[in-house]
Amino acid sequence: MKKIFLLLLITAFAFARTNAQVSFGPPTFTAIDPVTITVDVTGTPMAGETEAYIWIFSNASVSGNAAYPNKDGNVNGSWGNSSDAAKMTAAGTNKWKFTFTATELFGQTPAQLKDFGFLLKSKTGSKQSPDYKPYAFEPLIFTPTLFRNFPAKVGVEDVITVNLDKSLATDVNTSRMTPASVTVTFYNDGNPAVAVGTLNNVPVRNNGSIWSATFIPTQATIVLPGGTKLKSFKYKFNGTILDTDGKTSNVSTSETEVPFSDLK
Amino acid sequence: MKIFRNIFPIAVMATLVFVNCSPEEYDALPDSGNVTSSLIGNWTLRSVIQKDEGAEIKNSPFVTTDLTSIFPYTQYKLTLDGASGASGTYTAVPGASPKIIRSNTGKWEVDDVKNPKTISFINGTDTTKMQIGSYPRSFNSSFKLRQTKVDLATKKVALTYDYEFVKQ
User: What is the ipTM for the molecules in this complex?
Assistant: First the structure.
């Protein structure tokens, strides 16, 4: 029993260590999103190398499945002579990073891409890291949510619509409330971010269970301190419910934060 | 003789059919050089459609939003002045509508005077660039502009705005 416990402990430690060596930006991504891999090769044969090349392959968790063909990245080159396009960028001691978009790198459609794996190697293949795999792509499907902003990516000059789908509410107040307005609070790019302006009483409209409010940050009637760069905004829906005595009470939903994208 | 009587009408009809199958002549296409001059005049914004370019591929039911009635966009008026060249001056009067061009006055110019694809509204260092979607014609006195927003992080088009203007 002690041996089994020790074995499980070692295995768990090994997995935890493997996961800790690889990180992604953004943390989750679809096959059509650009993603940056950062990997720490400390403790592997690639430790101490002055340059590293990626060897990347699609659908690492499946083999011989026609729905998910296995393909090498188009930057790989040959094992004995990696291409320059596979060269990774230094990101600190024993740390390397590489940015790619899966559909472009593998020449496959999103439907053909389930996950991927990779390893780091020297240009000639004389040294290599262990395989890092599999890392799954987020599915390309629409998932209804309680809060949703339209469009999904917004800049400070854009028309932004925030939505509340009451049919998806899990708390009593939100599911019973009659929305009347939205409050939007803008945050700057400081660390920590500071609230620099609030837009109150943005009118709402509804279409079935979905309540919406629309605003344009740079054309809203808020006064921002000079030189302010907006990083995100938070919004909440305000409304009323009838309590057990039949009296009207004011309620608000929780706040949801939306980052601004740099759109041009 | 009987055979000749049967064949003769058929031969006459066939001849008529062949004679009438000559190529039809069409008028020449309008001179594309008039496209730029057709933009000059006073215009009123008729509709604004916003599209999330990332929504379709995710099979989202929410791909476009008609913003025309959400804000008073139809109050927006745009005057394009100038000769039939590749540039001129513009004046925008938003009224209560949100601005769709950052500066209300300035210079406009197109990328190609004969076959314009983009129009730029310029005021000093501030430029709003839009694609020309359709030109005004005698049978359709409206034109469309498309503003494309690219996500600088991904270099992909994130959203677009389609503006349709009608002659005042």
Answer: 0.80
Residues in chain B closer than 8 A to A219 (CB atoms): 98-99
Burial of B131 (0-12, 13-18, 19+ CB in 10 A): middle
Q: How many CB pairs lie under 8 A apart between chains A and B? A: 74
The CA distance from A20 to B43, in Å, is: 60
Q: In a mutagenesis test of the A interface, which of B47, B48, B57, B76 is the best target, namely the one with the most A β-carbons within 10 Å? A: B57
Are residues A34 and A128 located together in one domain of the fold?
yes
Number of domains in chain A: 2
Domain that residue B67 falls in: 33-167
Q: Are B45 and B93 in contact (CB under 8 A)?
A: no
Answer yes or no: do B158 and A264 touch at CB < 8 A: no
Taking only the tens place, the pLDDT of each residue in B26-84 is 444 445 456 788 889 999 999 999 999 989 888 899 999 999 999 999 999 999 998 66
Mean pLDDT per 10-residue segment, chain A (264 residues): 49 42 87 92 96 97 94 97 97 96 94 96 97 92 92 95 97 96 95 92 96 93 83 97 92 95 92
- Report chain A residues touching chain B, CB-CB < 8 A: 32-34, 110, 140-142, 148, 150-155, 158-159, 161, 214, 216, 219, 261-264
Report the number of distinct structural domains present in chain B. Answer: 1
Report the alpha-carbon distance of residue A128 to residue A124 in Å, rounded.
Answer: 10
Q: Is residue A80 part of a domain?
A: yes
Across the interface, do A159 and B50 touch by the CB < 8 Å criterion? yes
**CA separation for the pair A227, A65 (Å, rounded):** 55
- A158 contacts in B (CB within 8 Å)? 149, 159
